[in-house]
Amino acid sequence: MNTRDVPQPTRRALLGGALAAAIVGVASVGAEAQVKAPQKAVEYQEKPKGNQECDNCLQFQPPNACKLVDGKINPKGWCKLYAPKPK
Length: 87
Fold this sequence. Notes:
- By secondary structure, the chain is mainly α.
- The chain is 24% helix and 5% strand.
- It contains 1 helix and 2 strands; from the N terminus they run H-E-E.
- It has one helix at residues 11-31; strands spanning 60-61, 65-66.
- The protein has a two-stranded antiparallel sheet with strand order 1-2.
- A hairpin with a 3-residue loop joins strand 1 (60-61) and strand 2.
- The radius of gyration is 23 Å and the shape is rod-shaped.
């Protein structure tokens, strides 16, 4: 058998394989633990900024945690990732 007898992959097959690999890669990233931002990087402070405070932020997890920021979070604190909970 020479190299001319070996079937060559089609462009469609190559693109399909690349797409499958990308989907598997994204799925495996989602399975890993989420890395949280350091408090200093998001300008976290122990006091509210006006009426913006952690306990009315979408990311706050009672009693003292955040989905996005590392460490213990004061419910009356604030950071620049503040996002109000929907009413």
